[in-house]
Amino acid sequence: MDWMNFNDIFRSSFLEKTTSVSLIDAVIGLVVAFFVGLFIYLVYKKTFSGVIYSHTFNISLIVMCMATALIIMGISSNVLLSLGMVGALSIVRFRTPLKDPMDLVYLFWAIASGILCGAGFIPLVIIGAILIGIVLVFFVNRITIENPYLLIAKYSNPEVESTVKELLSKGVRKHMLKSKSVMAGNDFEVTYEVRLKNGEGELLHQILKTPGVKSAVMVSYDGNFTA
Q1: Are 113 and 19 in contact (CB under 8 A)?
Q2: Residue 11 · residue 17 · CB < 8 Å
Q3: Radius of gyration of the chain, Cα coordinates, nearest whole angstrom
Q4: 10-46, pLDDT tens digit by residue?
């Protein structure tokens, strides 16, 4: 009959797992994940071109990078834990809508960086972060993309439409009728997609001076409406 000694009493799988984790490697991985997340934070802030800048979303990129690295460190040494973590994370549903497709790119970048930091691929994370940051800064800030405008005009005389078309033909490089509706009181409303060649203020003044035009509004459209 085997007798339990003093060491067997305090022997547990918890202590074995604690001693198997390298605290130095964990600290280095989390510190690198923090600085990479901070770099992603700065790149996102510099290249943001949407309507409303979300500071909380940008902060979440840093936390997501560190949290992903922490998860990878925890499951890298235990196959059963990794399978359980996959099953647990598969039931998580994210309900926050992403208005800009680039936000999804930054989320994927933060998660990928966290995975590499947790796996110990520190040089790969640093090189990848620098190259991706350069690409994003160059393409977002250096290359200008001409976004179309939506011109919404409201008038009461049907004959005004031909005058508006003539002004658009002279004042813009390209225009296309998107919608036309008849409102209460025998009012008409048309929406044109236009590509300007001059300032939008001059074209709006010309349309507003047309007899019969009640209002004219022009908004920029790049996936979001911005007045």
Answers
A1: no
A2: no
A3: 29
A4: 444 544 555 556 788 888 989 999 999 999 999 998 8
Distance from C-alpha of 149 to C-alpha of 190, rounded to nearest angstrom: 14
CB 106 within 8 A of CB 129: no
The correct answer on CATH 3.30.70.260 for the domain covering 149-226 is yes
Phi, psi of 193 (to 5 degrees): -95, 120
The DSSP string of 141-165 is HTS-----EEEEEEES-TTHHHHHH
| DSSP assignment of 197-221 | SS-HHHHHHHHHTSTTEEEEEEEEE
Average pLDDT over residues 150-165: 79
- Cβ neighbours of residue 220 closer than 8 Å, sequence gap 6 or more: 147, 149, 150, 226, 227
Residue 41: half-sphere exposure toward Cβ, Cα within 13 Å = 18
pTM above 0.85, yes or no: no
Distance CA(110)–CA(60), nearest Å, equals: 9
Gap between the Cα atoms of 170 and 177, Å rounded: 16
Q: Using a pLDDT cut of 70, give the percent of the chain over it.
A: 71
Q: Note the pLDDT tens digit of each residue in 118-131.
A: 888 999 999 999 99
Residues of the chain with CATH 3.30.70.260: 149-226
Residue 182 host element (H or E): strand 172-183
The one-character DSSP state at 37 is H
Phi/psi at 196 (5° precision)? -80, 150
Pairing mode, strands 149-155 and 213-221: antiparallel
